[in-house]
Design a protein that fits this description.
heterodimer, A: 230 residues, alpha/beta, Pectate Lyase C-like, 11-stranded mixed sheet, 3 helices, B: 451 residues, TIM Barrel, 8-stranded parallel sheet, two-stranded antiparallel ribbon, EC 1.4.1.13 (chain B), GltB_archl_type (chain B)
Chain lengths: 230, 451
């Protein structure tokens, strides 16, 4: 068994790195994989489906760890659009900031962004749990169906627009709610859930500081009088 | 004032019975019409073209003795495993949710029997359709309902859907009455609520992002399977070029006659351009980029007959895709459904309950399909038996391919892909201008300057 595998993107292409992660890795079973010099490249560690720790040492581009299953991927830097897009399981952690659409349409697993996330974080969310250490941009959790978004900082305009059954918790200020989103009183299971997520995300906040946002469910059936709310 | 009754009854061209009915309905209910099927209005179509089959200047092939190849290969640009089909006729994406599981299974069975592909839809891949389909194209749609890497890896190709011909620029609405527990579970949404499908993808917003998105999908599938990009026909020339730049192996263009399960009437009748007009624009775009033959082109939207298929191929398509025609072959709009023993059960009364009649039904959105096709109702779904549906659809596809090869032979072609624009003439000036083929009896192509 290899103790630690290092793959350097100055010598290898993203294709070669992913080929290793999808193939040889399963035979070699290293204790972990370090990917060096990502330099903003896209789709690194996309499509992983095995229990392995992957560390990307630097800033990376779009679709990092896309559709992740089982793996624990840590990006030691910032990421571009759509990190952990459509994730199924496992953990993806961004030590820096994330650009737009972080965790888009994810079904499961945990996405942690230690810095800020830009707009549409958790868009079309389908079950993934997202914890953002900083703030999120506008239209975050737009049309989110299931799962949880925890924002330790502030939320931008139109938070939770057209939400379905996903839940949002915000510690800081909320610029504005989107269509059909509303603030609701925190219940015992909300405190429990936020405490658990903060603990797993290694964020040191008190769940009592958070507000709960969810859908008013007034748009669940077509209503002509809702006009531009749709 | 005239006492002539016929003058008093003269209908206004602007405010005719159709317009009056529309205004009254809008005034009464405050709602626009949502319906299924495709455009009802007459637009220039493949019917307006004819073949200049062989006589002296061209040499025909013997219809019942000489072979005409119809094998079709799609996705040769980047994929390690291109799609190989026996016929250039594929089954278009239609969702589970809109259609029943029995229908999805029938589509897979028929496609497999005819050596062609079928396609998933908004709602994900059902085990029934994967099992029954030898070649299955997996759609990646804006809603991402049911989309996951498990099924992605089981697919034979990916189709990135940017829009469809019946509603380019619009999303979808699966009304709550069709959202059964199984549909709800697949879409990660509560049972019985109206489900809106987004009009744009959640994780990219423009062609530069699309290129990166396609690369991600290729990375996940190790560059094995082709990636199609499907669009409703609007600004075809520009859109095709961007799809090619984004890395599409195959471009799918869906004209305005394309069907849908449920959308606003205003979309169906007033957006997009006819299939006939879209196809030459797409071919020109591929030609401009020197990728004709490298990036394959599928055209869809109102394809019904083998003649339509042949004309589409002659105009430059590599294959066609059929949705509405396939449903009609299964029994859509028929007065009866067929039981396992072959007995037909008349359902005219069920159509009447919907306020319609066989041949005129567009009530796919209600989930009350009298012949068990566009439904999730446990009482209606069994009306379509997969094996019976598959047999009917196989027959239909077989006829289309026989008609296609018949026309190709008559034009002197031993391969359907050898059909060419020079084999066609147009019956109307409009069709000649759109298809860019000469008006019959002349060498005039409107807009070309040549006479």
């Amino acid at each position: 068994m290899v103790s630690l595998k290092q793959l350097d993107l100055t010598d290898l292409s993203v294709r070669q790195v992913n080929e290793y992660l999808h193939g040889e890795l399963l035979e070699e079973r290293p204790a972990g994989v370090e990917i060096l010099n990502p330099d903003g490249l896209h789709s690194i560690a996309a499509g992983l489906d095995t229990k392995v720790n992957v560390d990307i040492l630097g800033h990376a581009g779009y679709f990092i760890a896309g559709m992740n299953q089982q793996a624990r991927v840590t990006i030691h830097g910032n990421v571009g659009w759509s990190v952990a897009e459509n994730m199924m399981s496992g953990v993806v952690r961004v030590k820096g900031h994330a650009s737009e659409c972080a965790g888009a349409s994810g079904h499961g697993g945990l996405l942690v962004i230690e810095g800020d996330a830009s707009s549409r974080c958790g868009i079309s969310l389908k079950g993934t749990e997202i914890v953002v250490g900083g703030s999120v941009g506008h239209f975050s959790a737009f049309m989110a169906q299931a799962g949880t978004l925890v924002v330790c900082g502030d939320a931008g305009p139109n938070l939770g627009d057209s939400l379905y059954e996903a839940t949002i918790y915000v510690r800081g200020s909320i610029h504005s709610f989107g269509a059909d989103a509303q603030e609701e009183e925190m219940q015992a299971d909300d405190f429990e859930k936020v405490t658990d997520l903060l603990s797993r995300a290694e964020m040191n906040y008190d769940a009592r500081e958070f507000k709960r946002v969810s859908s008013a469910r007034s748009l669940y059936h077509w209503n002509a009088d809702a006009h531009q709310e749709y | 004032m005239s006492s002539d009754k016929s003058i008093q009854r003269e209908e206004s061209a602007s405010f005719n019975e159709h317009s009056l009915s529309y205004i009254r309905q809008a005034a009464e209910y405050g709602l626009y019409e949502i319906r299924g099927m495709g455009a009802k209005r007459r637009v220039p179509s493949f019917d307006d073209l004819i073949f200049l089959s062989a006589s002296a200047s061209r040499y025909p092939l013997e219809g019942y003795r000489e072979k005409c190849e119809s094998k079709t290969v799609l996705g040769t640009r980047y994929a390690k495993q291109p799609i190989e089909l026996e016929i250039p006729i594929t089954i278009a994406g239609m969702s589970f949710g809109s259609l029943s599981a029995n229908v999805k299974e029938a589509l897979g069975q028929a496609a497999t029997q005819m050596g062609t592909s079928t396609t998933t839809g908004d709602g994900g891949m059902t085990p029934e359709e994967r099992e029954s389909s030898k070649t299955l194209v997996y759609q990646c749609l804006p809603s991402r309902y049911g989309f996951n890497p498990h099924d992605l890896r089981k697919a034979d190709a990916i189709e990135m859907v940017l829009g469809q011909g019946a509603k380019p620029g619009g999303g979808g609405m699966l009304l709550g009455q069709k959202v059964s527990p199984r549909v709800a579970q697949m879409r990660t949404l509560p049972e019985g609520i109206d489900q809106r499908s987004a009009c744009r993808h959640p994780d990219w917003t423009g062609p530069d992002d699309l290129k990166i998105k396609i690369e991600e999908l290729r990375e996940i599938t190790d560059w094995k399977i082709p990636v199609y990009v499907k669009m409703g026909a609007t600004r075809v020339r520009e859109d095709v070029k961007l799809a090619v730049k984004a890395g599409a192996d195959v471009v799918v263009i869906d004209g305005m006659q394309g069907g849908t399960a449920a959308t606003q009437q205003v979309f169906i009748e007033h957006t997009g351009i006819p299939t006939l007009a879209a196809l030459p624009l797409a071919v020109e775009a591929l030609s401009d980029m020197n990728v004709l033959g490298e990036v394959q082109l599928i055209i869809s939207g109102g394809i019904r007959t083998g003649a339509d298929v042949a004309k589409a191929l002659a105009l430059g398509a590599d294959a066609v895709s059929i949705g509405q025609g396939v449903l009609i072959a299964l029994g859509c709009n028929h007065h009866a459904y067929q039981q396992a023993d072959g007995e037909e059960v008349d359902v005219t009364a069920d159509y009447a309950k919907l306020g319609t009649a066989p041949g005129y039904c567009h009530h796919c959105h209600t989930g009350q399909c009298p012949v068990g096709i566009t439904t999730q109702d446990p009482a209606l779904e069994p009306r379509l038996i997969p094996e019976i549906g598959a047999k009917r659809l196989k027959n239909y596809l077989q006829v289309l391919n026989m008609e296609l090869t018949t026309l190709a032979r008559a034009c002197g072609k031993s391969n359907v892909h050898h059909l060419e624009k020079e084999d066609l003439a147009a019956l109307t000036v409009e069709a000649a201008a759109m298809a860019k083929v000469p008006l019959a009896g002349t060498s005039w192509i409107p807009g070309s300057g040549s006479v």
